[in-house]
Amino acid sequence: MLNTVYQLKAARQFEAVFKNVELDDRHVLVRPTHLSICHADQRYYQGTRPEAILRQKLPMALIHEGIGRVVYDPTGTYRIGDEVVMIPNHPSESDDVIAENYLRSTKFCGSSKDGFMQEYVSLLPDRIVLLPEGIDKITAAFTEIVTVSYHAITRFLRFSHERRGEIGVWGDGNLGYITSLLLKKMLPDSRVYIFGVNRNKLSDFSFADDTFLVSQIPEGLQVDHAFECVGSSASAKAIDQIIDCIRPEGAVSLMGVSEDQVPVNTRMVLEKGLCFFGSSRSGRADYEGLMRLYEKNPDIPSYLENIVGTQIKVSSIGDIVKAFESDIHKMIGKTVMIWNE
Amino acid sequence: MGTNVYGVVLAGGIGSRMGNIEKPKQFMEIGGKPIIVHTIEKFVVNPTFERIIVLSPRQWINYTQDVIRKYIPMNSRIDVIQGGETRNETIMNSIRHIEKNYGLDEETIIVTHDSVRPFVTHRILEDNIRFAKEEGACDTVIPATDTIVESADNKQITNIPDRSKMYQGQTPQSFKAKKLQDVYMALTEEEKAILTDACKILVLKGEPVYLVEGEVFNIKITYPHDLRVAESLLGGK
Q: How many Cα neighbours within 13 Å face the side chain of A38?
C-alpha cells in the first residue's frame, strides 16, 4: 500500500511522500487520530539542531507522541477500532541489563526513523498499548511524555536512597508539571516542591506541596532529591541551584535536553556525594506501568487536561504548519493535532 | 449489522492511452506491486468498507484474482466481478452485485474509485463516505490550476470560464447506490450514451452532488509519463 508520509524536508517545510507498506501477517496498522508536538519536534521544525544533524536526519516525518485506532491487524492481537497509544521506540535486539530505550541500535520515531505524521503507522503488536476506556483523547495524545516522567521516576526509585521526605522539581513547563504530578501519586508521602521562573505557571501546580520562584528561594530550604526538567541553556543554572539546595547523598534526575554543553560544579557534587543520573525516552514496560497507575489514580488524566494548550484540526500541510507555528508561541501546554490528513 | 458501505474499484478499461503495453494499465507495477493492488489495499485497510468490489474486463478477472491472492493476504472481503461496456454500466454491475448478494437499501453507499489512482488517502475516503451518507452524492475534486478554455468547434475559443469556479474531477465518486441506480435506469438509451460520468447523471437530473477536496497527488496513472511521476512520488527517504 502506498502510505502517505508527511516529512519535514527542511526547516519549516513539509512535503507529502509515499512509502510502500507491506500488508504482511506481522504488522498492525494504526490510523493516527491525535498527535502531540514535543520540543524535540520543534528543534527540527525550526532548524535549531546543528546543521550536520539536520542534513543527516531530514527528510523525516516528525512526532513521537500520538494515539490512534487499530484498522488492520492480521495478528489478531487487537480488535479493529481499538484506541491505542503508539510506542515510538523500536528496538531490534533485547538485553538483560540495558533497557530498550538505551540500546544504541534502537530506532526512535521522529529521530532515527519517520515519526507518526503518516496516513497509517505500521507497527509490531508489542509497539502498541491499549488505552483505558473513556480516557480523554486529547490528553492521551501526549501519553509518551508522561511515560518519560514515569520512566525517570522508576529509575529514581532504583538509584536514590530511601529518605525521600522532600523532593524538588526544577522547571515549570510541561515536563515539570507531569513529573511532579506523577511524583505526588507514586510517592504520596513525599513533599514535592516546584522551582520555576514564572509565577503564573507555578500557580498551575495546585497539587504540589509548595512552589518557589528560583530567584526567591527561602534561605535554608533543602531537598533530599531533585529532578531537573529545565533543559536548554537554563540547565546550568538549574543544576547549580540543585547542587546548592540538595542534602548530601541525594540523587539528581536529569531530564532536560540541551544542545549546548552544560558546566557542572563537580567539586560540590563530590563533596556532597551526589548521584546524577540521566533518563531519556521510555519503553513498553513504562507504558504498561503508567496505564496501571492511571487505573489506581483516575484523577491523573484529568490533571493532565490542564496542560492541553491548543487543539488544531489538521487536514492539510498548511494546517500542520499552523499547528507548529502556534506551538512556538504558546506560554505553556501541549499542542495537539487532531489528525485528519 | 454491517456498515452498508461498499468500495467499488473500477478496472474496466484496457488502457488504450498507455502506449504499446499489452496488459491493462492497472497491472503495471509501481514500487514492485501492481497499481491495482496498491489501490485495493487502501480499501482493505479501511474497516468501514463491508466489501470491496473490483470490476475487471472479463478476460482479466482471473488475473486480477491471482494478483489479489498473491499480494493481499487478508482478501476475504474482496469480490472480483465483470465490468460493463461503459463506466456507468460497470458501476451498475457493482450495484446489482450488492443487491443480489448483500442486499440493497436506500442507505447503501458505494465509493467508486479508479483502480489507477493508488494515491488516494484515508481522509479522502472518509470524507467521501461522510458526504455520501449525509448528502447522497459527492465527487472528489481539486481546484483548477490552469485556465480552462472552452471551444465549441475545437477551433476557436467560445468561452473562458471563471477559474475560481473550476475544479478538476478526480475519484472517488460516492453515492447512495439505490438512488443512483433509479436515476440511471430512468435514462433513455441516448442519454445513457452521452452521460459518461456517474456524477453527471445526477447533476443533469437536478440532484445535488457535493464536492470533496482531493489531493494534487491523487493522480490517475493513464500515460507512461504518469508512471514515472508515480515512481518519483515513491522515492522518499
A: 26
From CA A179, how far away is CA A152, in angstroms rounded?
Answer: 8
Q: Quickly count helices (H) and strands (E) in chain A.
A: 11, 18
- pLDDT, average across residues A198-222: 95
- Residue A331's φ and ψ, nearest 5 degrees, are -85, -55
Q: What is the mean pLDDT of chain A?
A: 95
Distance CA A217, CA A231 (A): 20
A222 shares its domain with A135 = no
Residue B36 forms contact with A (CB below 8 Å): no
Structural domain for B181, as ranges:
5-137+169-233
A290: domain CATH number?
3.90.180.10
Count CB neighbours of B177 within 10 A: 28
CATH of the domain at A233: 3.40.50.720
Touching A: B residues 112-151, CB under 8 Å: 118-119, 121-123, 126
pTM for the complete prediction? Answer: 0.91
A16 with B215: Cβ contact below 8 A: yes
User: Which amino acid is residue B113, in one-letter code?
Assistant: H
Count CB pairs under 8 A between chains A and B: 72
Residues of the domain holding A188 = 147-278
Establish if B72 touches chain A: CB-CB under 8 angstroms: yes
Identify the pLDDT of residue B231.
Answer: 86
Q: Which three cell numbers stand for residue A25?
A: 501477517
Report CB contact under 8 Å: A74, B73.
yes
Question: How many domains does one find in chain B?
Answer: 1
Tell whether A296 and A267 lie within a shared domain: no
- Determine the residue of chain A that is closest to B124 in CA distance: A341
Q: Could you say which of A17, A71, A119 has the minimum Cβ distance to residue B233?
A: A17
Q: For residues A105 and A13, state if they share a domain.
A: yes
In a domain, B159, yes or no: no
**Strand pairing partners for A229?**
none
Q: Give residue A341's pLDDT.
A: 65
Interface of A with B (CB under 8 A): 1-2, 4-5, 7, 16-20, 23-25, 29, 31, 59-60, 71-72, 74, 80-81, 119-120, 315, 340-341
Q: How far apart are CA A87 and CA A90, in angstroms?
A: 8
- For residue B173, give the DSSP letter: E
ipTM above 0.95? Answer: no
- Is B185 in CB contact (< 8 Å) with chain A? no
